[in-house]
Amino acid sequence: MLILECPYCGVKAEETELHAGGEAHLKRFGPGSSDSEFHDYLFMRENPKGVHFDRWRHINGCGKWFHAARCTMTLEVFGTYSAQTFEPPQDIRDAISAKRPDWTWREFK
Amino acid sequence: MKRYSVFAVAREALRYHSGWERAWRSPTPKRHYDVIIVGAGGHGLATAYYLGKNYGITNVAVIEKGWLGGGNTGRNTTIIRSNYLQDPSAAIYEKARSLYEDMSQDLNYNVMFSPRGVLMLAQTQHEIRGYQRTAHANALQGVETEFVSPQRVKEIVPIINLDGPRYPVLGALWQERGGTARHDAVAWGYARACSAMGMDIIQQCEVTGVRVENGRVAGVDTSKGPIDCDKLGMLVAGNASVLSEMAGFRLPMESVALQALVSEPIKPCMDVVVMANTVHGYMSQSDKGEMVIGGGTDGFNNYTQRGSFHHIEETVRALNETFPMVSRLKMLRQWGGIVDVTGDRSPIISKTPVDNIFVNCGWGTGGFKSIPGSGWGMAELMATGHSSLTEAFTIDRFKEGQFIDESVAAGVAH
Questions:
Q1: Fewest beta carbons less than 10 Å away: which of B193, B280, B319, B381?
Q2: CB–CB of B309 and A1 under 8 A?
Q3: pLDDT number for residue B408
Q4: How far apart are CA A67 and CA B196, in angstroms?
């Protein structure tokens, strides 16, 4: 069972208290973008075997959205962080590098 | 290959069963094959089989990182039905269902296909309308289904509780020719037939890289060394994103865990498959007497082949409402498989940006029932470059907006 700490209210919540919201840090493409940008935004998803970033909502708690960094192979959680950011913060990246030195995810290393 | 028959059984009975041969060979890989299929599950082996049978292409290797049929082929709940809403899906699933009917004779291997009937319960007004629509669509597609009354449901499944505490049974979509088959036997039967045609099935051989030269596939690197090929088929379900990345293109899908469980064996009590999609659980009884139970997928990306416990709790709770008699059953074991889910819940069977690489994935929760149809279409696509069975399932359909929306017919919450 996945246990994530909500970065807003500090509650260590197990997954029935949370709602999974899919891939993190998607850049929205709308009017004015190219067809392939819009297609990738809507349908293409990172689906790595290893380090992954996704969005979660503390739905049966404070109700806020946040991000989690975790491993899809082991379900290990590297950390959770605020939704108010466009990329994983440095301390989260360091925490991942400490355990998975060669990790990559999109353009992040 | 020695044929299995009553005479073979009699012959072997007289000589202490010393004459049975291995069902398939375990060869070392050759340097080059015309076609390499990655993934020796049902879909991969079926594709290889129909390549040989329908198109005479037998210089084929099927490579598998684990053991044959050890992925989702050995992890599903063995349900076979074709009551899908959209024309392209109904066509391929109905092709599969009809191939299952004579598969045992075709492969000379008993896959224990049991056309016992599949009942999908309607437990809300919305679901009634949805299933009536499906029944009408199926009538136009030539797929035999029928919308039946609650009284008829009770006749078909006497152990059901029509007046459940939350959702009463208001009717059901009934496909009498659907049913179950033995999942392992499907993989084993295809493997035996492929091996008999001279194809190499190479187990415990993991693909570590895909070699592409001038936009065209040249071969694969594996844990047993490099192997060259003219054409490459990828049929690796939940691992399709990982493999496509090796070949340098991306797929619009995500991998999540789907779970199933079986109870202790009990005497025969239910001779059909029942799916209750509103309360969310489905159940059938195996020939051994175990109740085979399935439920929903997890909501997050996962490759661990185990799912979250609360889904099992939900599933069992749902079945307790629908079948009160199962409440005292002990559960024997539980397991998970990694299913690959696309945006419209329909598979991708397609050419790819790399010449001569073909991909067949995204079956999500509906892979087992489609095995022969998928293999039939995929073989045609790989051999001739076109298949009417698979043409709607291209990767490009997302860009074109030509979705094949089966989120309802898939019957499993994603």
A1: B280
A2: yes
A3: 61
A4: 52
CATH 3.50.50.60 fits B30-109+182-252+344-400, yes or no: yes
> pLDDT tens digits, residue range B171-200?
999 999 999 999 999 999 999 999 999 999
- Does A3 contact chain B (CB < 8 Å)? no
Q: Which residues of A touch B255 (CB under 8 A)?
A: 47, 72
A72–B301: do the CB atoms touch at under 8 Å? yes
Tell me: the pLDDT tens digits for B343-354? 888 999 999 999
Q: Where are the domains of chain A?
A: 18-99
Of residues A1, A4, A7, A2, the one with CA closest to residue A91? A7
The DSSP bridge pattern shows strands B273-276 and B281-285 to be antiparallel
CB contact under 8 A, B310 and A19: no
Residues of chain A contacting residue B300, judged by C-beta atoms under 8 Å apart: 2, 15, 20, 54
**Which residues from A are below 8 Å from B400, CB to CB?**
none
- Tell if the CB–CB gap between B253 and A19 is shorter than 8 Å: no
Residue A27 is classified by DSSP as: P
- Whether the per-residue pLDDT at A52 is higher than 70: the answer is yes
What is A18-99's CATH number? 3.30.2270.10
Residue B83: which of B129, B128, B126, B147 has the closest Cα?
B147
Give burial (CB, 10 Å; 0-12/13-18/19+) of A29: middle
Contact with chain B for residue A35, Cβ under 8 A: yes
What is the nearest CA distance from B256 to chain A, expressed in angstroms? 10
CB contact under 8 A, A47 and B241: yes
- Helix axis angle for B42-55 and B371-384, nearest 10°, is 50
A45–B300 CB contact, under 8 Å: no
Domain parsing of chain B, residue ranges: 30-109+182-252+344-400, 118-177+255-342
CATH number of B118-177+255-342: 3.30.9.10
Q: From the centroid of its chain, how far is CA B330? A: 27
pLDDT tens-digit map of B62-101: 999 999 989 999 999 999 999 999 999 999 999 999 999 9
- This model of the complex carries an ipTM of 0.90
